[in-house]
């Protein structure tokens, strides 16, 4: 099928694979922050530590050569 071949060519691209690889590490940290804001009763005391945790995690990912801990 030509559609399947076209999709395979796009996802086999190194840029696509590198983006998925990076998102594998980044999205869990952002999900933690997102869940903090989605709680029913948002505590302002919990927001600052959640942001600090997320920023620290993202900085750790950015500073390592291997962002995915597989």
3D shape: elongated
Helical run tally: 3
Share of helical residues: over 70%
User: Element order, helices and strands?
Assistant: HHH
Low-confidence stretches: none
Mean pLDDT: 82
Biggest pleated sheet: none
Distance between the termini: 34 Å
Strand content is under 5%
Structural class label: mainly alpha
How many beta-strand segments?
A: 0
What is the radius of gyration computed over CA atoms, rounded to a whole number of angstroms? 17 Å
Please describe what this structure looks like.
With 70 residues, this protein is mostly helical. 79% of the residues lie in helices and 0% in strands. The chain is built from three helices and no strands. Helix 2 packs antiparallel against helix 3 (44-63). The protein is elongated, with a radius of gyration of 17 Å. It starts with a helix and ends in a 7-residue tail after the last helix. The model has no long low-confidence stretch (mean pLDDT 82).
